[in-house]
Design brief:
Layout lengths: L19 H17 L2 H19 L3 H4 L2 H32 L2 H7 L6 H29 L6 H14 L1 H13 L2 H18 L11 H7 L3 H14 L7 H28 L1
Helix pairs in contact: 1-6, 2-4, 2-6, 4-6, 4-7, 4-8, 4-9, 4-11, 7-11, 8-9, 8-12, 11-12
Protein name: ABC-2 type transporter
GO cellular component, one term: ATP-binding cassette (ABC) transporter complex
InterPro entries: ABC2_TM, ABC_2_transport, Nod_factor_ABC_transporter
């Protein structure tokens, strides 16, 4: 007589694998733990925007003493902080992961790419929000920056939304380049976009030609939309279309880079 296939007892609940949400949270937890094992990566991301606030905004009484200017300055540096987090996390971070043998194994598992990708996005958003805490504390204590609590919450959500194009740009860089090249490209992209987008020097101080050029950049569009939420100052008319257009372009580049990487490594 052939051996019978083992079956669960009658009335027992069949065992199933983790849900999609469970897998996403598991990958997010793994990404967070992996990142904090290198404390300088977290500390640097937390400190740089806050130090910029301390060195360039707080000593300037014309800005720090004016509620409108001080609040806008906090918004600009918050935009830079999220840009930096997304570009480094999804640019150099993804490129470094691709160099590890374990990455190739994980990408062959039957769960597919979605849980890991969404888990990484969730972890990146968490680090982006954490990076805003010291910046907000310095702005509240040492300048006249002010906003109602509801506005602060809305601005925190808004800065993640306007940062999405840079998340996609980071993925495009991370899946296209080696880890060494990705770090250099991220740095080469981040600081020019931040300066030309009015994140270090207010765009209102730009010469007319630079102001016109700046309005075509995603960093300027995101900055103006965020400041509109924080202060009520209206963004320029094309800010939202510009941000959406760059977001679509960077998303297309990220998809192409991922498919190219899949084709080269797994076909």
């Amino acid at each position: 007589m052939s051996t019978a296939t083992a079956q669960a007892p009658i009335g027992a609940t069949p065992r199933t694998g983790p849900s999609l949400l469970g897998l996403i949270l598991l990958h997010a937890k793994f990404s967070v733990l992996e990142t904090i094992r290198t404390p300088i990566a977290v500390v640097g991301n937390l400190l740089f925007p806050t130090l910029a606030m301390l060195f360039f905004v707080v000593p300037n009484s014309a800005v720090a003493g004016n509620p409108l200017f001080a609040t806008a300055a906090v918004g600009q540096l918050a935009m830079f902080s999220v840009m930096s987090t997304f570009l480094f996390t999804f640019g150099s971070g993804v490129a470094e992961d691709r160099a590890l043998p374990f990455d190739g194994y994980v990408r062959t598992l039957p769960a597919g790419a979605a849980p890991r990708m969404l888990g990484r996005v969730l972890a990146g958003c968490l680090f982006a929000l954490v990076s805003l805490i010291p910046l907000g504390v310095v702005g509240a204590l040492l300048t006249e920056a002010t906003a109602p609590p509801a506005t602060v919450v809305l601005a925190a959500l808004m800065v993640l939304v306007v940062g999405l194009p840079f998340l996609m740009l980071g993925l495009a860089i991370g899946y296209r380049m080696s880890s060494k090249a990705a770090i250099a490209v991220v740095q080469a992209v981040l600081f020019p976009l931040a300066f030309a987008g009015g994140l270090f020097l207010p765009a209102e101080m730009f010469p007319s030609w630079l102001n016109t050029l700046s309005q075509a950049l995603p960093s300027r569009a995101g900055r103006d939309l965020l400041i509109q939420v924080l202060t009520g100052q209206p963004a320029y008319a094309l800010a939202l279309p510009v941000l959406i257009a760059w977001g679509l372009l960077f998303t297309a580049l990220a998809v192409l880079a991922y498919r190219r990487d899949e084709g080269r490594r797994f076909n």
